[in-house]
Amino acid sequence: MNTYPKLNPAKDEAALISRVTDFVDSFDKKNGKLSIPKSPGGQLDFFGYRDLSFDFDFKTPFVSIKEFLDFSADVSGSGGIYVFGGALRDLAMFGVSGFTSDIDVVVDRSWDVLEPALIKRKAIKNKFGGLRLYVGKMPIDIWNSENTWAFKQGYLKYRGIHSLLETTILNWDSILMDWKKKRLICDPTYFSEIRNRRLDVVFEENPNRLGMLLRVLRHLHQKDAKKISLRACRYLAKETVNFSFEELRNAEIRSYKSAIIELKLYDFFRFEQFKEYSEDLAVSDILHPAPFV
């Protein structure tokens, strides 16, 4: 039985921003969260009083996603706070009802100020050099944009927040939302590629090569791609040589508790080198090839 969310691609930037707002509001309402700022004297402040020195000493966890994002935006000063990747992908492709991701937030030019403030609000350091916190049961990962793995390893050069778009595994993840300005940063073709369900690989280097291979292959099923780029095909042809189907299946079960990657899909990329191809492939031709006559 297919339990994947129904595709409902956002048509443009305004539609996706509206979905982000709806998601934040619906999540906070569902979890019964209401955040009313307090003045230093402790009284409720219905007029939006903000005192950052008070916020720095306020050591309880965040009670809503909006509170976390607004707090981070306040503390960051002239720096930037950006929602990144999977959360925006799910909302762009499926809408609020199809959201299955966690939330990734990147910080530009204010990490030294924001990190200690978030630790005081119960964020904990993770093994990747960033922070993790929870709003209800929702995990949120936060890190300094310049410490993204691709930049630290020297594969790419950081030239500002737009550089993050070059670091994602897939084109569907290559999008940022500037929380302060409520605007998106993405390639001009982003919404047409979502609408046409075209899957592409953006950045091939990864510290977990097997995990990346799994993710791309599962997306051919899970996200219901219609087309796959020639670049992505050649990536899959190169990487399937390095891992047996048994290794792939075992890793898939360990990571996802289920196995949906079929041997015929693995074999297609394992044995096809795509030297004679010149354009995108239809996924239906890969998963359900025409019978030989």
Tell me the helix content: 25-40%
Poorly predicted parts: 33-58
Major β-sheet annotation: 7 strands, mixed
Q: Into which percentage range does the β-strand content fall?
A: 5-15%
CATH topology (fold) name of the largest domain: Beta Polymerase, domain 2
Query: What is the count of β-strands?
Result: 10
CATH superfamily membership of the largest domain: Beta Polymerase, domain 2
User: In what order do the strands lie side by side in the largest sheet?
Assistant: 3-4-5-2-1-6-7
CATH class of the largest domain: Alpha Beta
Distance between the termini: 32 Å
Q: Structural class, judged by helices and strands?
A: alpha+beta
Q: Number of folding domains?
A: 2
Looking at the overall shape, the CATH architecture of the largest domain is 2-Layer Sandwich
Q: What's the total helix number?
A: 12
Overall mean confidence score, pLDDT: 86
What is the gyration radius calculated from CA atoms? Answer: 21 Å
Order of helices and strands: HHHEHEHEEEHEEHEHEHHHEH
Q: Tell me, what's the shape?
A: globular
Task: Give a quick set of tags describing it.
293 residues; 2 domains; 3-stranded mixed beta sheet; 12 helices; Beta Polymerase, domain 2
